[in-house]
Amino acid sequence: MTLFLRPTIYRNKVNFHKFHQYSTKSNTLKKLRIQKFIITGSTLFATGSIFYFFINNDDTYKSFASFSLIPVKSTISSDKFTATPIHQIIPQSKTTSIFRLKLSAPLQEPFPVSSCVHVKDPSLQIMREYTPISPIVKNDELLYIDLLVKRYENGQVSRYIHGLSVGDLMEIRGPVITFQYRENMYKALGMICGGTGITPMYQIIKHILNTPSDKTKISLIYANQSIDEILLRKELDILSKKHPDQFKVYYTIDNAPSSSSWNQGIGYITSEMIKQNMPPPSSSSLSNIDDKNSNKDDDNSILILVCGPDGLMKSISGRRARDMSQGRLRGLLKKLGYNENQVFKF
């Protein structure tokens, strides 16, 4: 490029000294601009290369993100899915683990009882419900949600979750109310569940027993394949010993243990187990459950909660309807005289 400069003229003479001075300054500025462009371009190229490396290297990216160099907003919402980091994975059995999720800020309100969160598999755009097994707790100024998840071979979301590692992000939405419990709304609660169906029951049990003014009596029948598969057994036993007059638990397992120390149920849940461990059915419906005095000493204030795999639901109460409503009451509870207002299916 040709540089044209207008020389300074004094009395029709060219000031060559001034011309040389301007030329030198212009060349210097031009060199500085070129050097600045080269440095800036090199910096952008290096930054882009590093970012590309991290994004395309899964292990490095996970480690990079887990140290919070990449900011992650993890205050969950009921309106949208939020990517929430996995802080810890705690094995409970061969197929089940607790996934502890870390929140970046406390929720404005505690989780309602009973409520769940939706977990999404982003690759398939499908979701499943999981009930937090503990309230939001404060620990070293960090807040957590614990999800108890069992891996099923035909369960796409459960397999996806079990494929995640500490530092990975889990997309969750919630809380979503599944059964709105109120203090002393029943005289007695019966609970029948199997496997990870214990999670909504455990949430309600802890809430009631941690509320001194709630006098609701709780009885639980919990079915599993083996002793090793009884999830949260330690926690349940501690609660039953601490509150012997308010909470009772009865376990039944498919496979009898070799030792003779097992003194609880063996096999599927039967009518006899229900008769011995659940509050008896009422002759009338629970139309008065919204009454403030619904904890009065009568037979109307009882409810049976049922949660578990399809086989258990079909046998005990019948499955929920396709539109996820309660559907018709069937199974053992129907045969034993319970009515549809006395049974709730998760």
Automatic annotation (TrEMBL):
SUPFAM superfamilies: Ferredoxin reductase-like, C-terminal NADP-linked domain, Riboflavin synthase domain-like. Its main location: mitochondrion. FAD binds at residues 128, 130, 148, 150, 157-158, 199. It is an enzyme of class 1 (oxidoreductase). Pfam families: FAD_binding_6, NAD_binding_1. Its EC number is 1.6.2.2. Keywords: FAD, Flavoprotein, Membrane, NAD, Oxidoreductase, Transmembrane, Transmembrane helix. The chain crosses the membrane at residues 37-55. Residues 79-182 form the FAD-binding FR-type domain. It is a single-pass membrane protein. GO terms for cellular component: mitochondrial outer membrane. Belongs to the flavoprotein pyridine nucleotide cytochrome reductase family. This is cytochrome-b5 reductase. The lineage of its organism: Eukaryota, Fungi, Fungi incertae sedis, Mucoromycota, Glomeromycotina.
